[in-house]
Amino acid sequence: MKRLFKNILLIVVCAMVALPAMAQQRGDYRQFRENIREYKHKYFQQKLDMTSEQANEFFELYDKMEDEINQLQEDARTIETKYYDAPEGTVTDIEYETATKALTESKCKEAEIEKQYYEEFDKILSKRQLFELRKVEREFTRQLLKYHHRKGKKENK
Questions:
Q1: How far apart are CA 59 and CA 41, in angstroms?
Q2: Which of these, 45, 51, 65, 104, could form a disulfide with 117 (CB 3.0-4.6 Å)?
Q3: DSSP 55-96
């Protein structure tokens, strides 16, 4: 079992190294994101010890949740960029207040979306799997950040 996990992890890491270069060369960021999502599915399925049936049901919902949250975050970044990039003195206090409220509301909506989907995940995953989901999400994100950090160091040499 450990050997299988190591092999899958090796494949994921190799893909994470090769895919960004390929995606950048072709300018196909969407395909790159889909490839990462595919590897994320495999990683989660392995770490959470999901059956194929669980994985199919879970990832259909998980991907929808992730898409909804990503859209909220993209909208929030648009708001932030609008005000961060504004020339000094052109944004009023009321505009800052409105933007701050919108960003806070975005975080609340994000939590509501997660709560809604976690109630659905509870019908698919065991209690242990559901509990460990956040840990696995953090581990996966950490691996991506480590890869990105290592890649950045290599490019700066």
A1: 7
A2: 65
A3: HHHHHHHHHHHHHHHHHHHHHHHHHHHHHHSSPTT-S-HHHH
CA atoms lying within 13 Å on the CB side of residue 145:
6
Token pair for 2: 């450990």
pLDDT tens over the chain, length 157 residues = 555 444 454 455 455 555 555 545 555 888 888 889 999 999 999 999 999 999 999 999 999 999 999 999 999 999 999 888 888 889 899 999 999 999 999 999 999 999 999 999 999 999 999 999 999 999 999 998 888 777 766 665 5
Joined tokens for residue 51: 């059956």
Please check whether residue 132 is in contact with residue 47, taking contact to mean a CB–CB distance below 8 angstroms.
yes
Q: How far apart, in Å, do the first and last CA atoms of the chain sit?
A: 38
Please state, in angstroms and rounded to a whole number, the distance separating the CA atoms of residues 74 and 68.
10
